[in-house]
UniProtKB/TrEMBL annotation:
InterPro entries found in the cross-reference section: CCB3/YggT
Signal peptide: none
Superkingdom assignment: Bacteria
Database matches in Pfam families: CCB3_YggT
GO biological process, one term: cell division
Keyword Membrane included in the entry's annotation: yes
Lineage: Bacteria, Bacillati, Bacillota, Bacilli, Lactobacillales
Regions that span the bilayer: 12-30, 65-85
Record keywords: Cell cycle, Cell division, Membrane, Transmembrane, Transmembrane helix
GO cellular component: membrane
Organism: Enterococcus alcedinis
Name of this protein: Cell division protein YlmG
Length: 92
């Protein structure tokens, strides 16, 4: 039962973080979006994770796909973690 709640908590937290990453990416469309208090708050939350993907340089012209790749990696890791926790739960 504990593993079920843990899986639910992890899934919801990763979903929320994914939404924050998408909002952070959309802020680039607005002039001064990153300089607002909300933009600075999101930067403190999102940039440590996004910094892991900076060296990949997934820019094609003026479009940077680092955030999209980071979201895909986050979702794949989430699915793998949920699968592992579910298998552990069924073992006991």
């Amino acid at each position: 039962m504990f593993v079920f709640w843990l899986v639910q908590l992890i899934s919801k937290a990763i979903y929320l973080y994914t939404v924050l990453l998408v909002i952070y990416a959309l802020l680039s469309w607005f002039p001064g979006g990153y300089q607002s208090s909300f933009g600075r708050f999101l930067a403190k939350i999102c940039e440590p994770y996004l910094g892991l993907f900076d060296h990949l340089n997934l820019s094609f012209g003026p479009v940077n796909f680092n955030i999209a790749f980071a979201i895909i990696v986050l979702q794949l890791a989430s699915q793998a973690l949920v699968l592992i926790l579910n298998r552990i739960a069924f073992m006991f």
